Structures are given as structure tokens and as C-alpha cells.
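Task: complex structure prediction.
Instruction: return C-alpha cells for all chains below.
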Amino acid sequence: MSTRRLEAGELELGGGLEVLLAAALEGMPTGALLEVITPSRSTALELPSWAHAAGHEAVGDRNLPGGPYAVEIERGPFARALAEPLPGRRPGPPLRHGELHTADLRSPAEVPAAADGAAGFTPLGAIAERGAPAFRWTLNERDALWADDVSELTEQASAAQWDASRDIPWEAARGLPDFIERAVSQVMTFIAQNEYAALYVPAGFLADVNPAYPEMLQWLAGHVHDEARHIEVFTKRALIGGQPSYALAATELSLHTLLDERDFSGAALLLNVLGEGTFLDLLRFVEHHAPDAATRVAATLAHRDEVRHVHFGISHIRRAIATDPDQKAALIGAAERRAAKLTEMSGLSPLLTEGLTVMAAGSLQPAELARGAGDVRELMQTMEDNRIKRLRAAGFDRRAAQHLSDLHTPNLM
Amino acid sequence: MRVGAVAYHPRIVTIWEAFLEHFDREGVSTDYILYSNYERLVEAVLAGDVEVGWNTNTAFVALEQRLGAEARILGMRDLDAQFATLIVTRRGETFGEAGELAGKRLALGSRDSGHAAILPLHYLAEQGLDAASECELVRFDTDLGKHGDTGDSELRVIRAVAEGSADAGALGEPTLAAFRADRVPAVAELEVAWRSPTYYHCNFTALPSLEDTLARRWEEALMAMSYDDERMRNAMDLEGVKRWLPGDRAGYESLAVAMSKT
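Output:
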């Protein structure tokens, strides 16, 4: 076997020589010889122990008086990583006008239908070394999680981030009359309360998702982050007017049952499609009737995020039903189970209805109040009509859509 | 098979838990018993409390001296078959012949360490330097009973040389490699001036009375341990072994001579 030669020059062990040595030996077959030439006697004397620690063996040396020194290293049989050899270099993913999009990292066909529930954190394209500890992921199947446009949705989520401290004209919220502030504060508190559940539900699934689906992790992490900001913005809006409100027990009951749903698709139906879907109409209502620009902008920005979440939900459910028609019955079952736990709920809390009415009326004058009450009735109808449309878009027939809409919580989320 | 080992670091438990699983898979049921120092371990082997002792070279030689006969060596690490001691100096203060160390301050590790104290003195004497009388010895006798396994005394040796409180210092070759890998700052100030001949270090020692079939089966199971086995790589890295070798006694002669003089 021929001997390769490596001139160490002034490089020493611990000073960069080990990088050159490792690179040279890596590409050599077991048993091949590398002759290292160094002017340093110290380096020559230290090379045998370096070689052994790196899995090779120093097999000979020629220490000419005054140097240079030559140490012969035999390439050891061990792979540095316990894994198959790295494949060769390939063309990287394409760019879109200089942008690298998540959707372009792999084709839909390359998303594995199932992933190893014990596998570790192996980034896309990386080769996992053997011998890592076993994990226990529970969401290991693509079809239980996926939406065809999840990558595009994450892209939109990243691009649409906003700042609840700086992007809201907070000054505009100061100095409203007491009765309006009370109404706004109660509505904001109610929304914030619900946004907590909208955070905890995806967060509860996030850490169960197999790392083989980074698109899903990005999506869920974005969802969680959006909801954290919604909690922030609506809490801030309630606080800035200085008027505290109630966190309603009936709302808690409804949200508690939402957190009970441990099936990802069931939760996507109950939260994304039904809950956040219904909230789209509520946020539009708040935006339209906001007495100040801060409330209006907060509702507008939150609405923009919720559109994405609802879109994911519809897209996921549609795909789930298309890949497994039995899913439909299971999903209806999830909604029925939740409704059964909510039989004691009679309707939307009067405190919230009154708040929405006063916001819409903008005054306590009878004529305005009557108009406001009409607007709230109209909102409830719009919510129901749109819920059915969304359920139809998700793949339910008219009857099932009506049934699911009827089962939906009176709490809106 | 009961194997005795010295608990010089908490990782010994990690290592032996993995080793036990390996021996189990190989069908040779094995357990381990930990001692706080090698003198106790030698006692335990001689008393039959354990069938095998995972001994340093110093412990092995002491055991044979006590036994007055040849013990049985069941195996050693590849590392143990090619051990050497290095002497380091500050950069630019290297020396050529051992004799040039006369009159200098020579730092040594724990006095019960074969590689960091006993053997450097022995090999320097072979090269004509009686360091005990001709050098000022700066000894770091830490962790006595552990025979240098902890590396603590050698860390003090290289710090002493780097700071200038010693002119040269002896340490095990793998210890310097480990200090380099850990980016120990003092190492950057040093160069290697001298390398001893190679000698043997640790081994698995049994009494000659150990039943032959059991001894062979255990040896075979040990040799079957593979660095390419992902269940074993971490434990083998912690133990500093890439391959187990059958043992022989050729490489213990120098230490036996050195220890017979003290």
C-alpha cells in the first residue's frame, strides 16, 4: 500500500495540525499509511498518542538529528461517526428570487409517511449516527398531522409577524368614557382568555411531534407564538384603559373541554376550524365597532394571524378525510364528546353580549342600544353561516356541517 | 465472574454498567465491585473476594510480588500495550539527552503512579540520570491509592512547568493527549522534550487458580467487545479503549525492576 505524505509545516497538535491529520486520514482506507513530516521534535514525540486517541496507530518514525522528523501513522479501522458514509455533495434546494423557502427543502413525496418514534433530532438531510438515546414521540405519522400547504403557511407566518408593543397606536385607547371602556375591557378580557387555550392546544402537541416533520414543528411553534402575542395584545388593551374585567367561569369550562381533546385532528377541528373560525367573525366585529384605533388595529392584526390558523385547520381536516374517510365519523365524535361535557352551558355569557352590544351601540341611548343588540344578533348568524361554509370546505356534507355547527360551544371557542 | 475495579471517578459506574450488559449478551454473567483504592483491590483479588481485578500496572506488579508467583492476565486495552511517559518543558527550553536535566527541577505525579513517577525515574536512570539525587524533584502526591488514574497530579505537573515552578515535568502520554483535547490552557505553554520507551499499563488480573474454562470464556467475551457497536462506544470511549488485547507480561518488566528497588 502506498504511503501518503503530509507536511505539517509550523502547525502543531492543538494548533490546527489535528484538523489536517483528520482530513487526510478520513479519506484513506484502513491500514493505509500517512507519513507526517514536522520540523518539531515535540510534535513528533506527541503524534503517537494523538494517533491512538483518534483510533489510528503510529507505526514508525525517522527522527533525523536536527529534524525534520517523520512519523508514520497507520489508518485505523474505525469510523468517526457510527453511521453510513456521507453521500456525495448534491445541488442544494432552489431559490425563489434569492429566498430559500421551507416548501422547497423537499418535495411532498419526500415527506415520510411514518417516522421512527425513537429517532432523535436529525435535521433534514442529515445522517443519524447510531447509539443515540431513544426518544418516545407519539405523533409519528404524516397523515395524522399534515396539511398540503403547511410549508407555505409557515412561510406566511414568518413574514407576517408583528409587535404588540410597537405596532398598536396605544395612545388612542386612553380617555374613553367609562361605560365604553367597561365594555371594551370585558370583550378584550374574554378574547385574551380564549387566546390562552389557542396557545395551550398547539403547544400541547408540539413536543409530541416527531422531529422528522420540521415543517410541522415550524408551523406549530409559529401558531403558539402568534397566540402568545394575541394574549399579550388583548391583555394590554384591557389594561391600558385601567378598567378590570371578569375572566368568566363559563368560558373556562368551554376551554377546559378544548384542552381535553388529545387527538391532533380532533383538536384541529375544534380549535382551528370551529373555534378560531368563529373568532374570525368576532374579530371582524370588534374591528368594525372598535371605539378607538388601538382596539381596531389589535383586532385587525390578530385576525390576519387567525386566518392562517383557520386555513391550516381546514386544509388539514380536508386532507385527513380524503386520506381516511373513517376520519369523518371520528371527528364528529370528537365534537359530540365535547358538546356532551358542555350541556350545562346555556349560551354566551350576558356580560360578553352586553359588552359587544355597547361597543356596537357606542352609546347608552335606547335607539343605539337597540341597533347594537341587532348587530350582535346578526354577528351570531354570520358566525353560524361561516362555520358551516368552513366545515363544508373542510370536506363535511351539508348535514354533517350543520350538525357540527350546532354542537359548537356557545362560548364561541 | 466478579470483577473488582477502583472507583476513581463516577464514570466508572457508567462504564461497568455498559460492560455488564455486554458480558450478559456474550453469555458470561459478570458483576463488578468497586474499591476506593488499588491496595484494597489487590487485597480483594488475593483474598478471592473477586475473581478478576482491573489493575494498574503498579497494582499488578504489587499483586505478583505479594503472590510470589505469576498471576493470570485476561486482557488489556490497546492503550495499555503501548503506554509511554512524556517529559515536557516550557517552549524553547527543551533538552536533548536525559543528563541535561541534572540540576533542574523535575515535577512528578503521584508517587504510586507508574507512568507519572516511578517509570520516568526508572527510564531516566537507564539513560544515565539519577534524578532523585541529581534533580530537584517536585512531587505532587495527590489521590494516592488511585495510582494516577484521576490525572489530577499530572495536571499539577503541567501547571507547575507552565508557571515556572518546575523546569520539566513527567506525565502519561494519553494524559497529555486528553489535556490537549480538553484545551487545558497550560498545555499551550509546553513542548514535549522526551518520550520514554513504551511499557504496559493496566490489565485484568486473576489468580492462577482461576478455573480455566471460565477464564477463557470471559477473555473471549472481552475480546468480542467492539468499538463499532453503538451500545458500547460511549463506555469504551470513557475507558479509553478501542480494542481489547490478550495480555502478556513482557511490558511489566521495567516496572517490576523499578518497584523492586523501592
